[in-house]
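Customer escalation, tier 2.

The customer says the design service returned an amino acid string that "doesn't look like it belongs to this structure." They asked us to rerun it and document both sides in this ticket. The original structure tokens are below, unchanged.
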């Protein structure tokens, strides 16, 4: 028969208070218990305390400015995370440069001798940075994200039905014209025209975002979705034509 620990004080109020005190000084992150270092100084607005040294810092900081420990992920603005101005028009070169710098700082080799908790935090931050980068480098995803920041949900990766009769007719006419192309040069000409039109649409989207014309942004994104699909179909037809040797 198994023995049960019934020794006096095993569940005493004193021990229970100690257990509660220990639990209160830890928070759980993906199964790891992270110590919470308390500070006697009240935190100012927009600040948080480093889990490692209790140094006050900005909520969106990736690393503690004092002990340089990587911080737990928080709900960050992608633009702030990657250090660029929040706008539809972005410097893609600067975006990539900032992304690479952050990934270097979070590279697994830098955390080879760190604790399991710190390794997990670095991995989680790297995942967030990847998502932010791939969202902001794509103009469609970037526009959709800016809509979300303004409280409007619009998933550009979701198939949508055209309810605008004029737009529907235009797309059907374009597909019919593409079906009549019989040589690669013809496809090249249509693709060049389509690319110029899409660039013009992106400039309009940028203008609409600046003026908070969110309905206009959604209408243009829908049009861009169908232009992108048309562009993809044209390239596939051109590849088939070249593959057939005609």
């Amino acid at each position: 028969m198994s023995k049960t620990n019934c020794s006096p004080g095993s569940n005493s109020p004193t021990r229970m208070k100690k257990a509660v005190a220990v639990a209160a000084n830890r928070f759980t992150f993906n199964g790891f218990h992270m110590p919470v270092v308390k500070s006697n100084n009240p935190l100012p607005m927009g600040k948080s305390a480093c889990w490692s040294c209790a140094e006050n810092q900005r909520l969106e900081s990736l690393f503690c400015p004092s002990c340089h420990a990587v911080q737990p992920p928080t709900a960050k603005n992608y633009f702030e995370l990657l250090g660029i101005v929040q706008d539809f028009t972005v410097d893609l070169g600067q975006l990539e440069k900032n992304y690479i710098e952050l990934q270097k700082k979070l590279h697994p080799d830098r955390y080879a001798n760190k604790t399991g908790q710190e390794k997990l935090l670095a991995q989680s931050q790297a995942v967030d940075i990847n998502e932010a980068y791939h969202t902001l480098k794509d103009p469609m995803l970037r526009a959709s994200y800016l809509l979300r920041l303004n409280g409007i949900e619009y998933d550009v990766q979701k198939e949508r039905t055209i309810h605008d009769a004029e737009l529907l007719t235009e797309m059907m006419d374009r597909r019919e014209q593409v079906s009549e192309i019989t040589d690669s040069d013809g496809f090249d000409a249509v693709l060049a025209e389509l690319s110029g039109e899409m660039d013009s649409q992106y400039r309009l989207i940028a203008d609409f975002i600046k003026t908070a014309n969110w309905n206009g942004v959604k209408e243009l994104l829908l049009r861009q979705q169908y232009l992108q699909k048309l562009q993809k179909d044209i390239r596939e037809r051109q590849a088939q034509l070249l593959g057939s040797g005609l």
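Tier 2 assessment: The sequence is consistent with the input. The helical segments are 13-24, 78-81, 92-105, 116-137, 139-149, 165-179, 184-210, 214-244. The radius of gyration is 27 Å. Sent an explanation to the customer and offered a walkthrough call.
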